[in-house]
Amino acid sequence: MIDAEKANYTITRMCRLLEVDRRRYYEWRRRQAAGPTAREQRLAELTVRIKAHHKASDGTYGAPRILHDLREEGETVSVKTVAKCMRQAEIAGISPRTWHPPTTTVGPNPDPAPDRVQRVFDQGLPNIVWHSDITYLATGEGWAYLCTIRDGHTRRVLGRTVADHLRADLVEDALRQAVALRGHLPGNVIFHADRGCQYTSEQIAKAAGELGLLRSMGRTGVCWDCEHRDCATAESFWSTFKNEYYHRHVFPTIAAARQGAYTWIDSWYNARRRHSAIGYISPLQYEHHLARQANQTAPKAA
């Protein structure tokens, strides 16, 4: 205001009436004339890039994941600086919300298989432990149900099925997808789930036996086992799926929910989303990294 009215009033008078220190006003004018400092310019340019990465994540990434995006581009920056730029730009990642509708209905045989995992889902290698769970999705046509099979080490979703029922077919379809994706399995993969009636069914027992999988069951209602309420891996898949995708969309039909879930899982979660437990890279990137390591250490043919 002082600068805008200096042609009409003296600066001394305006500073006195507005209770502004005249020295501070002249300092401000010098800064304005000099333009932004090198640090201010760098932070402004960094904020533009941070906004781009935030937008590319559909507004879900917070400072830690954006930090790894920037470092992958060769940028040297700290997570505190990224967080500061995000606060000033008024953008933020999505924080988990707790919403836990129960989907586990205990079957008539509540102890069909031992717990072969003991809460250690990541046993250091792919295809040692797979774990599965079911959640449900509201649509304009009624409830739909999503079953996933995940690798406990790489975090990759190997099988996913959306249907309008909770029969054991839902689990078997996802399980056969996972086996088809992996192809030849080294030894017996442990297939871990809760004691829901789908997983304790004779149908799944037969399918697991046919596919060469060892069934494992956690305790229903124990949050450290692989249930919807919490997953023992470093980050709950359901929390990620619900908060970063499902709660932000409306699905008029079951087909729309199916297409949306499959696209999010295949194109974003598996292929691009950075996962904190595997070094802030995506599950597919991590599996490619493991494959390269295996090729480099494999003995060469004579």
Task: Outline the structure in words.
The protein contains eleven helices and five strands; from the N terminus they run ααααααβββαβαβααα. It is α/β, with parallel strands linked by helices and 302 residues long. It folds into three domains: 2-34, no CATH class; 38-89; 129-293, Nucleotidyltransferase, domain 5 (2-Layer Sandwich), CATH 3.30.420. The chain has a five-stranded mixed beta sheet, sandwiched between helices. Strand 4, helix 8 (202-211) and strand 5 form a beta-alpha-beta unit. Helix 4 crosses helix 6 (79-89), helix 5 crosses helix 6 and helix 7 (168-182) packs parallel to helix 8 (202-211). The protein is elongated and about 90 Å long.
Layout of strands and helices, then pairs:
Elements: H1 2-5, H2 11-18, H3 22-34, H4 38-56, H5 63-72, H6 79-89, E1 129-139, E2 142-151, E3 157-163, H7 168-182, E4 189-193, H8 202-211, E5 213-217, H9 237-244, H10 254-269, H11 283-297
Parallel strand pairs: 1-4, 4-5
Antiparallel strand pairs: 1-2, 2-3
Helix pairs in contact: 4-6, 5-6, 7-8
